[in-house]
Specification:
about 525 residues; alpha/beta; 8-stranded mixed β-sheet; about 40% helix; about 20% strand
């Protein structure tokens, strides 16, 4: 009996070895010299980046029982691009859509997301996103987030399923999530820049923790359960975006200055694979050489003209199509025009940018189209003819360039407003390869144990072109799911550096078998 048990144990040990190579690697004397002998700090969950994805992951993990978490944020402020975003979040939501007469479905959202990205996204990730985004809305509401009753069609999207925060756009999410972090006692350490991911050996074994720089000192943190990278995109990194799309080197950006993609090379250093790095999105902004951005484009309700005062692109076209059409204009510059009725419909932040633009020379206002043209340096008669032709199309319900009926509004009520339409880098669709459990995948297609990523730092979710409103949905949905996933994850990998002895060996075997069985039958 005893003998049988021992044999069973050995077989089990073999199975354990197959699923816990990292535990053995950790005991291996060839463990990389890069692994600290002594760590400065130890937590269970380490999150890189206090933006939408990172904060959501922390709160979701805490709700599921994992609160020993540390969030590292390199900037002196919290929120990243999420905080400065318009906050529009796509999710199928019959309770809001039906009263507005909008028929929608998960399949519709799925198909539009794939098509909008030229079928270059990973369908499994898109499915994960669209199926779980509705629950993310209700989850957010359950922790205090408030959305407007009506959904809307976010600029650059294909359908009215955008949820608008009730208060201060993207900042609303951050306020709610930070309050939750306080509630669960999760520290967010600011001005703490992650500079290294530490793996057992450079390309093998599990990820053990990170090293970060704070106040000129390097500090190591052991993360016994997982490292989640939620460090955002690289829209503000000129060199990185020029490497992947040289046309974008000198463009301005809508992003916060911390969106520099620091974690991408760090993840590559430990074996991670990247995808779609040249899928880089632009939005109307200020042309190269100028610094103040006046976004008049919300809802695509303006018209865009070239230096001859002529329209050259359907203003509610896909973002990448507009980008390419504007970038080939002389000095990569065009102009946007709308009337006071449409101006009244943009949000306060956009209005404030326009008022400031009147002072900086980036926006103009006039009582007639001809006067506006003069101020903007465009040919007055040509611009007047363009506006007249557009208005006639609106009246007839048919636009010459095929603008959607729902975006056809006349330009008729003075004063008229104009602003530069340059291209500003807005979103980076490419990033690290993940699977549907948000585990980071290496260049051989294998999971890097204990390394997860969520949000704009990941690739494969949007394909060649992201639909407006899908990024917030992506960051918060994958953030929510990854937090839960890690909290519920059985401790498949034991920290062999800090524990040893026969009881531990038996624990490894039992927990490994539980994990194996859980995977097949759970
Ligand atoms: P972020 O929110 O950017 O957070 C990443 C954090 O990681 C940052 O705080 C950053 O400082 C930190 N970090 C980076 N490197 C390090 C490091 N080395 N160490 C520690 N911390 C680090 N999408 C929509 O769907 N709807 C919209 O209406 C919308 N509007 C937008 C408007 C603007 C102006 C912008 C710029 C974007 C908008 N987007 C919108 C896109 C969307 O906001 C972003 O894709 C999303 O918020 C990214 O979330 P994230 O959590 O991945 O990254």
């Amino acid at each position: 009996m005893m003998e049988l048990s021992r044999r069973k144990l050995l077989v089990a040990a073999g199975a354990a070895a197959a699923v816990v190579p990292a535990a053995h690697a950790a005991q291996d004397p060839s463990l990389s010299d890069n692994v600290p002998k002594k760590w400065d700090r130890t937590v269970k969950l380490l999150i890189v980046g206090a933006g939408g994805a990172g904060l959501t992951a922390a709160v979701s993990a805490a709700q599921n029982g994992l609160t020993d978490t540390l969030i590292l944020e390199k900037m002196a402020y919290i929120g990243g691009n999420t905080a400065i975003s318009g906050g529009g979040m796509n999710a199928v939501d019959p309770a809001r859509q039906k009263p507005q007469g909008i028929e929608d479905s998960i399949e519709n959202h799925y198909e539009q997301t794939l098509k909008g990205g030229d079928y270059r996204a990973n369908p499994a990730l898109v499915k994960e996103l669209v199926e779980n985004a509705p629950e993310t809305v209700t989850w957010l509401e359950s922790i205090g987030m408030k959305f407007k009753d009506k959904v809307y069609q976010v600029y650059g999207s294909l359908y009215p399923r955008g949820h608008a925060p009730l208060g201060s756009l993207g900042q609303d999410y951050i306020k709610v999530l930070v309050d939750q972090c306080k509630k669960y006692g999760i520290p967010i350490e600011k001005q703490a820049r992650v500079v290294r991911i530490i793996r057992e050996t450079p390309l093998k074994g599990k990820v053990l923790g990170v090293e970060y720089e704070k106040g000129g000192k390097l500090i190591t943190v052991r993360a016994t359960k997982a490292v989640v990278v939620a460090a955002g995109g690289f829209g503000a990194n000129k060199k990185m975006r020029a490497l992947h799309d040289p046309r974008l080197a000198d463009l301005t950006t809508t992003n916060h200055p911390g969106a520099t993609g620091d974690l991408l090379p760090l993840m590559v250093d430990v074996g991670a694979d990247l995808t779609g790095m040249d899928f880089i999105q632009c939005n109307p902004g200020c042309p190269p050489g100028r610094t103040h951005r006046v976004p008049l484009h919300q809802g695509g309700r303006f018209i865009i003209v070239d230096r001859n005062g002529k329209r050259f692109i359907r203003e509610d076209e896909r973002r990448d199509v507009i980008r390419d059409a504007v970038l080939i204009q002389p000095k990569a510059t065009a102009w946007g025009i709308l009337d006071q009725t449409r101006f009244d419909m943009i949000n306060q932040g956009q209005k404030d940018a326009a008022y400031k633009g009147l002072e900086t020379g980036d926006a103009w206002k006039a009582d007639t189209i001809e006067e506006l043209a003069q101020k903007m340096g465009l040919p007055p008669a040509a611009l007047k003819a363009t506006v007249d032709e557009f208005n006639a199309g609106v009246k007839a319900g048919k636009d010459k360039l095929g603008k959607f009926q729902r975006n056809l509004f006349p330009i008729e009520k003075p004063p008229f407003w104009g602003a530069y339409v340059g291209m500003s880098v807005h979103h980076t669709m490419g990033g690290v390869v993940i699977n549907t459990a948000a585990e980071v995948i290496d260049r051989r297609g294998e999971v890097i144990p204990n390394l997860y990523a969520a949000g704009e730092v990941t690739g494969g979710i949007h394909g060649a072109n992201r639909l407006g409103g899908n990024a917030i949905a992506d960051c918060l949905t994958f953030g929510r799911l990854v937090g839960k996933e890690i909290a519920e994850k059985k401790a498949c990998m034991i920290d062999a550096q800090s524990e040893s002895g026969p009881d531990v060996a038996i624990w490894i075997i039992v927990s490994s078998l539980t994990c194996v069985l859980g995977r097949y039958f759970g």
